[in-house]
Design brief:
Length: 170
């Protein structure tokens, strides 16, 4: 009986830790945080271990995608995110993919896959950012204000999403 209980708990944890919401994801708007006011600005590093501050991208729009190498919906949305990246680069966007896994795991994924992204490491716990499912994406405008939170896998290169992202401004 105890084995069945453990199996049920493990399955439940797997389901809630990595979920795919609808193709367009769930959007939380009206968020008031800026990268200049939050601890999240100092909790990132590049793949060499150097600290990265989101505020260093001031004047750019940031699409910050939280993902994991073990998260199937995260990996499945990467081709559309890569297409969106190519479109949005001319719109002043910086696309960052943040994982809380080890630098070795992130580097290994980058080397084995053909997704050319700016991979970074989040050095805190996702729960500190109120992230409870992957993938989760934060969108910041040019002023560093978080203007969107999208939970779940998203069709990033859809005309509707591209239009929405292009319209995000100060």
């Amino acid at each position: 009986m105890e084995g069945k209980y453990r199996f049920f708990i493990c399955c439940w944890l797997l389901l809630v830790s990595c979920q795919e919401v609808s193709k367009k994801g769930t959007v939380d708007t009206g968020i008031k945080d800026t990268v200049h006011e939050r601890a999240e600005d100092t909790t990132y590093s590049d793949l060499e271990g150097n600290t990265i501050a989101l505020s260093s991208f001031k004047g750019k729009r940031i699409l910050l995608n939280f993902w994991a190498t073990w998260c199937r919906p995260c990996i499945e949305e990467m081709p559309s995110l890569l297409k969106a990246k190519r479109i949005l680069e001319n719109e002043g966007y910086v696309i960052l993919l943040a994982s809380d896994e080890s630098l070795k795991e992130i580097k290994g994924f980058k080397e084995s896959e053909s997704f050319e992204f700016n991979y970074i490491r989040y050095n805190g716990a996702f729960s500190q950012l109120n992230i409870h499912a992957l993938p989760t994406t934060f969108i910041y405008n040019e002023s560093g204000k978080k203007v969107e939170k999208i939970v779940g896998a998203t069709d990033w290169d859809s005309p509707e999403m591209i239009k929405k992202l292009k319209e995000i401004h100060k």
